[in-house]
Design brief:
Distance between the termini: 39 Å
CATH superfamily of one domain: LigB-like
Strand content: 15-25%
CATH architecture of one domain: 3-Layer(aba) Sandwich
Radius of gyration: 18 Å
Structural class: alpha/beta
Strand order of the largest sheet: 6-3-7-2-8-1-10-9
Number of helices: 10
Length: 295
């Protein structure tokens, strides 16, 4: 039977892909970020991950506002990586497992999630930006990807709780698949950032760390927040954090943190974190007394 061996939360900032393609891994301004992904790549290699289920949002590359689905899942043997204006990237097409993808689609629809299914569509930086930092790609990717796109752009958005329940249904789908596969669920986006308007450049480090603490230990509290709460606390684009809740919903109640790298050097709090199921051994982060964003 397929099993979930862990989960990854990661930013999907497009400039990560640009910096990677330009070979800036040792540049002083970028090295702290790229170095933070090396333990994640090593973890995936050691765990022999066969499949990455990528929960991301499409940035009007595959879909546009005249028909933008709430939840969409890609089915296909491969997906091209989108040219978002900087030229085609020197990366192979993302590989898919059609049998697994079809099983997940069937299971989610029967679990009352009305999915849009897409084929042969390009995948943008929501997935493709962090992917080469997680997996080697020469001559090809070591495994397959199940791309699941979530609407975090055009209102009405799915609620935080709905995304969490998507993760729960996704776990049921994966664990009912008869083939022995090691699956990792990847939630992307965030953390705090705003790239336009009066608060352009806004970040909230205290909230970012509180979110990470609650995500691990008390995700239910995050489900009560509205989209406006996420925007107020982390900036307009931090509503992407609801995709991390879909990742969290696919995991057991108790999680232990394997690795965390938090790097705020631009307008986005670029973060990568790895969790496995089990009891945490590190002391829990305690928010500042004057913070109380959610508590």
């Amino acid at each position: 039977m397929a099993k979930i061996i862990g989960c990854i939360g990661t930013s999907h900032v497009p400039t990560i892909g640009v910096a990677y393609d330009k070979g800036k891994q040792t540049d002083p301004s970028w090295a702290p970020l790229f170095d933070g992904y090396k333990p994640v790549a090593k973890w995936l290699e050691e765990k022999k991950a066969d499949v990455l289920v990528f929960i991301y949002n499409d940035h009007c590359t595959t879909f546009f506002f005249d028909m933008y689905p709430t939840f969409a899942l890609g089915v296909g043997e491969q997906f091209p990586i989108a040219d978002e204006g900087a030229g085609l990237r020197d990366l192979p097409h993302i590989k898919g497992d059609v049998k697994l993808q079809c099983h997940i689609v069937d299971s989610l629809v029967n679990d009352e999630f009305d999915l849009t299914v897409f084929q042969e569509k390009p995948i943008d930086h929501g997935c493709a930006s962090p992917l080469p930092l997680l997996w080697p790609h020469k001559p090809d990717w070591p495994g397959t990807v199940v791309p699941i796109s979530v609407n975090v752009l055009q209102y009405p958005l799915p609620t935080p709780r709905r995304c969490y329940r998507l993760g729960q249904a996704l776990r049921r789908a994966i664990e009912s698949y008869p083939e022995d596969l090691n699956v990792v669920v990847v939630g992307t986006g965030g953390l705090s950032h705003q790239i336009h308007g009066e608060r352009a450049g806004f970040n909230n480090t205290d909230w970012d760390h509180e979110f990470l603490d609650l995500l691990q230990h008390e995700p239910e509290k995050l489900l009560h927040l509205t989209h406006a709460d996420y925007v107020r606390l982390g900036g307009a684009e931090s509503v992407e954090q609801i995709m991390w809740l879909a990742m969290r919903g696919a995991m057991a109640n108790s999680l232990k943190k394997v690795h965390l790298n938090y790097y705020l050097a631009t307008t986005t709090a670029m973060t990568v974190v790895v969790y496995e199921e089990g009891e945490e051994t590190e002391p829990r982060h305690v928010p500042n007394a004057n913070q109380a964003a959610v508590m």
